[in-house]
Amino acid sequence: MSIDMSQFHEAFFEESFEGLEIMESELLDLDVGAGDVEIINTIFRAAHSIKGGAGTFGFMNVSEFTHVMETLLDEMRDGSRGVTQFAVDSLLQSVDVLRTMLEAARDKTDVDEEMVAERYATLEAILKNEGGEAADAPASSAPTQEEVSTAPGNNSGWKIDFVPHPDLLMTGNNPVHMFKALQEIGELSAVVNLDKLQPFTEGSPEDLYLAWELTLTGSATKEDVLEVFEWVEDECDLSVASLDGEGKAAPEPEVVAAPVVPAAASVAPAPVAATPAKKAKIESKQKKTPEATSIRVGIDKVDEIINLVGELVITQSMLDQAGDDLEALADSVSSDGGETQKANAEILLRLSKGLAQLERNTRELQEGVMRIRMLPISFVFSRMPRLVHDLSSKLSKKIELVVSGEETELDKTVMENIGDPMVHLVRNALDHGVETPDIRVAAGKPETGTLNLNAFHQGGNIIIEIKDDGAGINKAKVLAKAVEKGLVSEDDNLSDHEINNLIFAPGFSTADVVSDVSGRGVGMDVVKTSIAKLGGTVSVSSEEGKGSTFTIRLPLTLAILDGQLVTVGSESYVIPLIAIIESLQVDRKRINQVAGKAEVYKLREHYIPIIRSREVFGLEDDTRDLHDSLMVVVEVEGAPAGIIVDDLQGQQQVVIKSLETNYRKVETMSGATILGDGTVALIWDVNGMVNVHKRKLNRNTTRA
Amino acid sequence: MSTSEQVNDDTASSESVHQNQYLTFLLGDEEYGVDILRVQEIRGWDSVTTIPNAPAFIKGVINLRGTIVSILDLRERFGIESVEYNDLTVVVVLRVKGTDGDKERIMGVVVDAVSEVYHISEEELKDAPDLGYAINMDYMKGMATVDEKMIIVLDIDHLMSLKDIDAMEKSGSVLTEG
């Protein structure tokens, strides 16, 4: 029986990483001292399914490691161990280790054994060090419960009555495998019970009529035993009873699926420990059901549907034009008189009504399909509490994180790429923004700093705000630094806003001390570039002593773009609106030649390069007088440039299509789109345009 | 060439029938053949959107039911004198496999007219003689004679390889660095 398990790996990893996220966020919610059983349960469940999955797929190191975590959690859950800060921190770090292990398993790379061993040892140490740690536990019940939890270890073994239902084999389970698993955790002896065996002529060969009495000796816990039978608990009658040291079987055999017997004070210790755990398990199972309202679908399938709907929209808009003609036709036909003519007009009107309805349906369908790709931003925000938790202790600062608007939705691809820039901004706010408690108190501010994360929709964009109530940006320092680095000159008359945004300039860092948290000199410019790659912008506003607010503005989706239609030569092109600063008519007096070849334009106080798009596209040697031509001023990596176009048309939202799918990358173009009339228009990559322009200039100079 | 994974959905059931069938088209007096399983559709010439700085034989891109497809002029690709496009001018839309292992692409080729569908067995397909510099042998799968006519069977994967296009663009283009 060899099934290729690797096909399920992807799902396992995906689920495990989700599980890790749950563990992490719940651990952060866990109050030290009085652990909420429900929260511990959630963490336990996540750990348990990772362990189970890892075991099934043969990632033994993962499952062993998780097992130790699980044991610790289990003891916290049944109250035999207090929830200490140390234990929670250790568990958080273990989550990280587990994540590394899973990533290594997924990428088939080696895991840092030393790190794992170290973490493993810490967990083991916590587990062993019961006396010291348990001091934090509720005093009343701690001592007895502790004895209880160690009891299974002293137990010499278990007596297991295993009576499978006849259809157990039909569900794909095999008792032999379970027995083998039991053998791994102890000494097993089995007695088969043939009472129910049917005569050879009767009974089905596929049914199972055997029952077993198993005796397992060794140090295995009851949980271990039950786990072996986990998959078949509904297909068998099972009872597990303890054999105590003298061989006297302890009473109170427990049927797994049966309702839990309330623990009376007089009952022997062993079942007491197991009972609350089990009860919680059952409760949580019932609780989990309503959450299962999502399905896993490959993103390529969704994209395929989005493509198809895109085509439908184009077809629909073609029909829409025809529909307008139909109405006009119907009017003229019916006014011509004649019975048949009137009937024809009726049909035409019905058709155009149908088309109007189709338009509505298509639009709704498109919106609906686009929403499939949208996820709440909480996927990114949920990374932050951990970051703040870790950093504030590292920097010895007190910071409270306030998150709002987590339910704001944005495109999955945008989401995947916004995480790192946001982490960077949050780190930055904690490191440079919020002050240490003593400074804060001295400045008359509350000891604990606040970091606000907020997200909301505005127009076709999503706005993410990262706001701290720290020291704010020291404008004098920023300006001095910028002058020193030659980014601006001293007599540049910069507004406060312009000065603040200098921190996004390449190579800019004002941190006095280069810490390992942030401030390695690369930073804000990288943030700006990665956000720009997503078609977004970032800016900062700040008030000294009061704090700073970073505002990220992102398109809701990467599939659609707001564009300006322009004409160059005989073709229409789309310029992404986000790249355009302004459009203007060229004034001859403002054009200057540099070195006889390069042209610059004096735009208010600055000189910007002039780029003749016809020349960049190799259409012709463009030597026209540019007076009165149209120039689109775009921003490329922070610097403006003026691109000459033949004509400006309207602005339009376009669906982005890849040129690379069936052709290849074109340096000056970022993609293509289909216009309302069905023709293709290419979308400019202004960056590439500037690069080609520069190369042409270089070539011309070297030739000359 | 004609392995099962490249078979169109509608032809999958009758794959064996289509084995070794070639669609032929005309460029001037010459007749060229391509594996019929690679032909997605045949359409009339329609205006294209030009791509800046592309080599001359890349006419541009069209909207093929929502997909952006590039169009290549075979006359210009072979360096044969080009003619004005007319009503007979057709675009054969082909599914091309990358020669360097990249994924399948859809590309259209402009030809003078489509001719016939022939069955050419492996034995009938002869190696083309070395024609020296005139035609790059990589583009030819072989030659065959059907009804007294000579047919040049093309290896479209090599013919449409973007590596070659890149190379031609680099050598012929003004975009060369420095």
What does this structure look like?
The complex is a heterodimer of chains A (about 700) and B (about 180). Chain A is α+β, with helices and mostly antiparallel strands. Chain A has five domains: about 5-140, Four Helix Bundle (Hemerythrin (Met), subunit A) (Up-down Bundle), CATH 1.20.120.160; about 150-260, ACT domain (Alpha-Beta Plaits, 2-Layer Sandwich); about 300-370; about 375-555, Histidine kinase-like ATPase, C-terminal domain (Heat Shock Protein 90); about 560-704, SH3 type barrels. Helix content of chain A is about 45%, strand content about 20%. Chain A has 21 helices and 23 strands. A six-stranded mixed sheet of chain A has the order 15-19-20-18-17-16. In chain A, strands 2-3-1-4-5 form a five-stranded antiparallel sheet, with helices on one face. In chain A, strands 7-9-10-12-11 form a five-stranded mixed sheet, covered by helices on one side. The radius of gyration of chain A is 35 Å and the shape is globular. The termini of chain A are far apart. In chain B, strands 8-1-2-10-9 form a five-stranded mixed sheet. Chain B has a five-stranded mixed sheet with strand order 3-6-7-5-4. Chain B is mainly beta and about 180 residues long. Chain B has one domain: OB fold (Dihydrolipoamide Acetyltransferase, E2P) (Beta Barrel), CATH 2.40.50. The N and C termini of chain B lie far apart (about 40 Å). Chain B has helices spanning about 15-20, 75-80, 155-160, 160-170, and strands spanning about 20-25, 30-35, 40-45, 60-65, 65-75, 90-95, 105-110, 115-120, 140-145, 150-155. Residues about 1-20 and about 170-178 of chain B have low confidence and may be disordered. Chain B contains four helices and ten strands; from the N terminus they run αβββββαβββββαα. Chain B is globular. The interface of A and B includes residues 308, 310, 666, 681 and 698 of A.
